[in-house]
Specification:
Order of helices and strands of chain B: HHHHHHHHHHHH
Structural class of chain A: mainly alpha
Structural class of chain B: mainly alpha
CATH topology of chain B: ABC transporter involved in vitamin B12 uptake, BtuC
Number of strands of chain A: 0
Oligomer: heterodimer
Strand content of chain B: under 5%
Shape of chain B: globular
Number of helices of chain A: 16
Number of domains of chain B: 1
Number of helices of chain B: 12
Largest sheet of chain A: none
Helix content of chain A: over 70%
Chain lengths: ~375, ~300
């Protein structure tokens, strides 16, 4: 975990994962790097709350009570964490190869729709472990397939994958709603949704809690992804590709196959997260359901540029915000979209904090840089 | 299906195409300028939402659509100022700042809208059209094209203005150099940071105009998440247009036609599921990308913060 945050300044492509700061202070530095900007973001959020005439202190204490401290809160948070962990692992795999998979929401919803739509048949016809396994694989396959077109365009024609994944994401979200309304619509309720499978026929709960077994699956998969990226030849190949596509080509790596593979794995992990959410929390899917984890989680994971293990604390923090934020917003009679404001502010603060970590040569003369920048000059 | 080529259908299709296409055109022109200067304006969706909200308020309380458009332009400019400071001046990551801005735009406008209007959803009066003498009496195109508000014609003129700006002025040359060979521009003694800074501001102002068009002219009211991907489509338009405003315009109205297809089809009694219709513009984009993949072009230094050699 130490040295997880790479030390290079903000660039357009993910920084090489091997650039580590020294071990001793690293843990403290990571803590400061994450905590200070998050606090700054929350303070800015408090200013907005005050301007809206809400008490920021009540809002935040509600948020952390409902999302972390209360008995229900931490269970709900850990339940929410399962899909988030898998999504962030998916993003990390793509980052490692220098790819930007921004279309997580579409992959997530489409995979969820397929799992929810086919689970009644599969659960009824097969023994439970086999059905769950097949549904998990189904989610992975759908999520992975949804990345194929962007990765083809990227690998063969160099088309910017940021754009294509977003386009596929919009198509995926609408296709998911369309499939639920036209193909898998239940007759038992008026709202367009799939047939519900009772939750006790799906993923088991852990002990006496409301947390489903998906969190264990997510933990194991994240560990596996971490191991593959860090200790295997495949991980090294992806890292080389991410650091320098030209170098990867010179080294004779199968660049196109790696791009398609990394993209597929990324989508598959997102799809598995969707499958766990449906099989552990809902048992059905409504046509208008869209938790919108994708963009916020993507940027949080990118900013930390951590290995999959290191992404876990950020995913956890996002889970707390998401669970607690809905409750706090309801109590403060605000729209729950206020969570988006908080995440956006925290993102901007996290990004801005990086500017304070200038390279060694620049640090001595930061005041000169500032002067030049004030005059809009190009600082060497 | 017999009525598919009827004057009513075509007229509805074309006027819908203009309503949906204009915001895309304005934002696409803005994005073109930003991209040419080497800054990926991923936050376009955020600019447009802020501007749509500000524009709606401006028109509602100011009592004139022009005030609304002005408010939208200022809101887009303000959001772009933030992006220019963070991405160009401080060289922060453009993708992260863009996403941050999108989330802020979605969240703030939605929360403010709920606080301000609650369950009442006021509407703006529709913007009066300017009937062009003679031409406005033509069948089909008369009602749909030649009776548009003045701002429509300003938008069309803007295509030409942006074209001339990029191709025939010193500023345009600097902007394109900042995107393609920033080090050459720097060597020629022109500030890359300064050039990009102002390009981002212009791009935000145009996107703001597009966002305000959406709420003030196209729909007459504001609702949360109303851009629904228009900002991203503007980015694709700029990418496919390869820095040529005329193609951005053509693309914008083609996508606009996809968006307006739904209402036009319903008018002649063909019922298509709305989800399928919402998919159309994005499918069109993907098809265009697959078909013209080889030809989509982005400036070499797009998204790369400029630093001098050896720093």
């Amino acid at each position: 975990m130490n040295g997880a945050v790479s030390d290079s300044a903000a660039g357009a492509s993910p920084a090489p994962a091997w650039s580590k700061p020294r071990r001793g202070l690293a843990a403290v530095r990571v803590l400061i790097r994450i905590t200070v900007p998050v606090m700054a973001g929350l303070i800015l959020g408090a200013v907005i709350l005050a301007l809206l005439g809400r008490n920021p202190w009540t809002f935040y204490s509600d948020l952390f009570r409902a999302g972390l401290i209360s008995h229900q809160g931490w269970q709900a948070m850990l339940t929410r964490l399962a899909p988030l962990l898998l999504m962030s692992a998916g993003y990390v795999v793509a980052f490692r190869a220098g790819l930007w998979n921004i279309g997580g929401d579409g992959q997530f919803l489409l995979a969820a729709a397929f799992v929810a739509g086919l689970s009644p048949t599969l659960v009824a016809g097969l023994p439970r472990p086999l059905a769950l396994l097949l549904l998990g694989l189904l989610g992975m396959a759908v999520g992975g397939v949804w990345t194929l077109l962007p990765s083809y365009l990227k690998a063969w024609f160099g088309v910017n994958e940021i754009i294509t994944t977003v386009m596929m994401s919009f198509i995926g979200m609408n296709l998911a709603a369309l499939l639920i309304k036209e193909a898998w619509r239940t007759e038992s309720v008026m709202v367009p949704q799939t047939d519900a499978v009772p939750l006790d026929q799906l993923l088991p709960r852990l002990g006496g809690t409301t947390i489903h077994a998906g969190i264990i699956v997510a933990g194991v998969v994240v560990l596996a992804v971490w191991y593959v990226l860090r200790y295997t030849a495949t991980g090294l190949r992806l890292t080389v590709l991410g650091a320098s596509p030209a170098a990867a080509r010179h080294a004779g790596l199968p660049v196109r196959r790696l791009i398609v593979g990394a993209f597929f794995a990324s989508g598959a992990l997102v799809g598995l997260g969707a499958a766990l959410e449906i099989l552990g929390v809902w048992g059905y899917m409504r046509a208008d359901w869209n938790p919108k984890f994708g963009l916020a989680l993507f940027a949080l994971v990118f900013l930390a540029r951590l290995d999959p293990l290191g992404a876990a604390p950020l995913a956890t923090f996002y889970a707390v915000l998401d669970i607690g934020g809905h409750e706090a917003a309801r109590t403060a009679s605000l729209d729950s979209d206020f969570i988006l404001v908080l995440v956006g502010l925290i993102l901007l603060c996290l990004a801005a904090w990086q500017v304070l970590r200038l390279p060694a040569g620049e640090r001595l003369t930061w005041w000169r840089c500032l002067g030049d920048r004030l005059r809009l000059r190009d600082t060497p | 299906m017999s009525g598919i080529l009827s004057p009513e259908f075509l007229s509805a299709l074309i006027s819908g195409m203009v309503l949906a296409g204009m915001p895309l055109l304005l934002a696409g022109l803005g994005e073109t300028i930003g991209e040419q200067a080497g800054v990926l304006g991923l936050g376009m969706e955020g600019y447009m939402l802020f501007a749509a909200y500000a524009g709606f308020n401006g028109a509602l309380y100011g009592g004139s659509p022009w005030l609304g458009l002005l408010a939208g332009l200022i809101a887009g400019l303000a959001a772009a100022l933030l992006v220019a400071i963070l991405c160009v001046w401080l060289r922060l990551d453009q993708v992260v700042v863009g996403i941050g801005l999108i989330l802020l735009g979605e969240g703030l406008t939605s929360v403010l809208h709920a606080v301000q209007f609650g369950d009442t959803s006021p509407r703006l009066p529709s913007v009066p059209g300017l009937a062009i003498p003679g031409l406005s009496r033509l069948p089909v195109v008369g009602d749909s094209v030649f009776s548009q508000p003045v701002i429509f014609w300003l938008g069309i003129v803007l295509i030409l203005v942006v074209h001339l700006l990029l191709r025939s002025t010193r500023w345009g040359l600097k902007v394109r150099a900042a995107g393609d060979r920033p080090e050459a521009l720097d060597a020629a003694g022109v500030g890359v940071t300064r050039t990009r800074f102002f390009a981002v501001l212009v791009s935000g102002a145009l996107a703001g105009l597009g966002g305000a068009y959406l709420s003030v002219v196209s729909s007459g009211f504001f609702w949360p998440f109303m851009t629904n991907g228009a900002g991203f489509m503007a980015i694709v338009l700029a990418m496919l247009g390869r820095g040529r405003p005329v193609w951005v315009g053509v693309g914008a109205f083609l996508f606009g036609a996809c968006v307006s297809m739904a209402t036009a089809l319903q008018l002649v009694g063909v019922d298509v599921p709305t989800d399928a219709v919402f998919m159309l513009p994005f499918l069109a984009v993907m098809t265009a990308l697959v078909a013209f993949a080889r030809r989509s072009y982005l400036p070499a230094a797009l998204g790369v913060p400029y630093r001098r050699e050896g720093s």
